[in-house]
């Protein structure tokens, strides 16, 4: 198999159902999700090397699979009537994981600085790239039909990375560093 096709040499790329410019917002959206997937893979590799975060590693691998599904769903030039891969089920599962990670972490009242353990720092990188991916998906959705489950998933996923980063620090015996000029911004909320 030859990796290069030469079909994109003039700035066009294929999507499901046509060709678009490589800087089309659809390509930006699923390309940013692909970038996020790479950082998730790095976080999983570093988490696995600790020997203490096997459950987190499995969650991250599951997320990588779902990120491919998100990208696939966004790659339809005309998504109307298509059979999508993403559904509400992974969103609900993310919420359950978020709740478990919050339970495994110390109470938080102030903003924190990204960092602590290497795993936590990488999960915060995932969080910020995820937020950028979400912005691209929102822009795409403003002008084109998309699978709404993708937008919900990406929104919830950034919350997951925040919660997972904090619980990784807790499990590895690292404290979060509070932002010293932060007011108390996190309050306990009833479900």
UniProtKB/TrEMBL annotation:
The keyword Transcription regulation does not apply. It catalyses: 2 cob(II)yrinate a,c diamide + reduced [electron-transfer flavoprotein] + 2 ATP = 2 adenosylcob(III)yrinate a,c-diamide + 2 triphosphate + oxidized [electron-transfer flavoprotein] + 3 H(+); 2 cob(II)alamin + reduced [electron-transfer flavoprotein] + 2 ATP = 2 adenosylcob(III)alamin + 2 triphosphate + oxidized [electron-transfer flavoprotein] + 3 H(+). Pathway: Cofactor biosynthesis; adenosylcobalamin biosynthesis; adenosylcobalamin from cob(II)yrinate a,c-diamide: step 2/7. It comes from the Bacteria. Keywords: ATP-binding, Cobalamin biosynthesis, Nucleotide-binding, Transferase. Its EC number is 2.5.1.17. Pfam families: Cob_adeno_trans. Residues 3-167 form the Cobalamin adenosyltransferase-like domain. Signal peptide: none annotated. InterPro entries: CblAdoTrfase-like (IPR016030), CblAdoTrfase-like_sf (IPR036451), PduO-typ (IPR029499). Belongs to the Cob(I)alamin adenosyltransferase family. This is Corrinoid adenosyltransferase.
């Amino acid at each position: 198999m030859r990796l290069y096709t030469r079909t994109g040499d003039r700035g066009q790329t294929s999507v499901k159902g046509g060709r678009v410019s490589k800087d089309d917002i659809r390509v930006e959206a699923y390309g940013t999700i692909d970038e996020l997937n790479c950082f998730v893979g790095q976080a999983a590799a570093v988490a696995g090397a600790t020997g203490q975060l096997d459950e987190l590693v499995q969650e991250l691998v599951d997320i990588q699979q779902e990120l491919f599904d998100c990208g696939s769903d966004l790659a339809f030039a005309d998504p109307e009537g298509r059979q999508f891969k993403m559904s509400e089920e992974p969103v609900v599962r993310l919420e359950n994981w978020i709740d478990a990670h919050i339970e495994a972490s110390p109470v938080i009242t102030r903003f924190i600085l990204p960092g602590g353990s290497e795993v936590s720092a990488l999960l915060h990188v995932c969080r910020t790239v995820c937020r950028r991916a979400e912005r691209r998906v929102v822009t795409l959705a403003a002008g084109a039909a998309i699978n709404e489950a993708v937008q919900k998933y990406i929104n919830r996923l950034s919350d997951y990375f925040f919660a997972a980063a904090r619980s990784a620090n807790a499990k590895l015996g690292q404290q979060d560093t509070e932002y010293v000029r932060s007011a108390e911004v996190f309050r306990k909320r009833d479900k």
